[in-house]
């Protein structure tokens, strides 16, 4: 068979039409959030097909999918972890296309996923806005006011470090002023990374206050720590340990938890990352620091001034730019354009 010839039994279908069929078919099997996530990722594939003149999926080959792989990495400035997520969704879609005679059988197996070293990109990883929005919407719908929900809302909304979240007491929340007071209290068991310089008031949105109110009134385990303080985040033994906070975050940021779908094409029930102690082994689970990095990047992407972000998140301007700002050069250019358009 010539390289670009196609089997006679394939039935023509346009990329966009195939994606729409796929999403409609999967809508009966997975959550709405999963459908939205798949639609977003496959939208890039449709865009690439338009740009390269592919009007019929019958034309797809392993070589063309490799071209898309290279294009997608460059177009989105994506790291290996994100590429695995994107390509896993494409692989599931192409496998579905095989079932309707839209592409040659076995084509999905030609989509090669990047190999990930243990904890690869953990330092540079971040929870992106789309994933954070999807996660928070899920928690607000199905787990409102729980300890995990409240923790995720605060980490994302304030961008604070895990040590700051660990240090919070119920009394640090001012319902009327809609803010949290972050304090350095080493004498009673909680420290802040930058000590007294990290003390600050952090304003909260009405939505986050609603979550805090629900947690404190209905879901918080009534418990004091060894110093007689009333921690905001508790276990039956007292203040929730930092290690437990990390575990909670790793567990809830596994995509299967809030989408019902595995972007890595694993069997969820038998996946080792489903064990509570192994959640961090999921390639797409995130650490509290990844949420902090994502929150900072999102604030900057929304044109919040760097000085405001610096003060709110307690991070120096030089460190902010070097280690936390994960906007792509394209995103920065578009933001500069929005300012120039006003001139």
Walk me through this protein's architecture.
With 343 residues, the protein is mainly α. Among the domains are: 15-110, DNA polymerase, domain 1 (Orthogonal Bundle); 129-253, Intergrase catalytic core (hpI Integrase, Chain A). 50% of the residues lie in helices and 4% in strands. The protein contains 14 helices and five strands. It has helices spanning 15-26, 32-52, 62-76, 80-99, 129-142, 147-158, 162-167, 206-219, 242-252, 255-259, 288-301, 306-313, 317-324, 329-340, and strands at residues 173-174, 179-182, 200-203, 234-235, 238-239. The strands form two sheets. A three-stranded antiparallel sheet has the order 1-2-3. It has a two-stranded antiparallel sheet with strand order 4-5. A hairpin with a 2-residue loop joins strand 4 and strand 5 (238-239). Helix 5 packs antiparallel against helix 6 and helix 6 packs antiparallel against helix 8. The longest helix is centred in the N-terminal third of the chain and has 21 residues, at 32-52. The chain is elongated. The chain starts with 14 loop residues before the first helix and ends with a helix. Mean pLDDT is 87; it is low at 1-5 and 119-123. This is Site-specific integrase. GO terms for molecular function: DNA binding. InterPro entries: CB (IPR044068), DNA_brk_join_enz (IPR011010), Integrase-like_cat_sf (IPR013762), Integrase_catalytic (IPR002104), Integrase_recombinase_N (IPR010998), Integrase_SAM-like_N (IPR004107), Tyrosine_recombinase_XerCD (IPR050090).
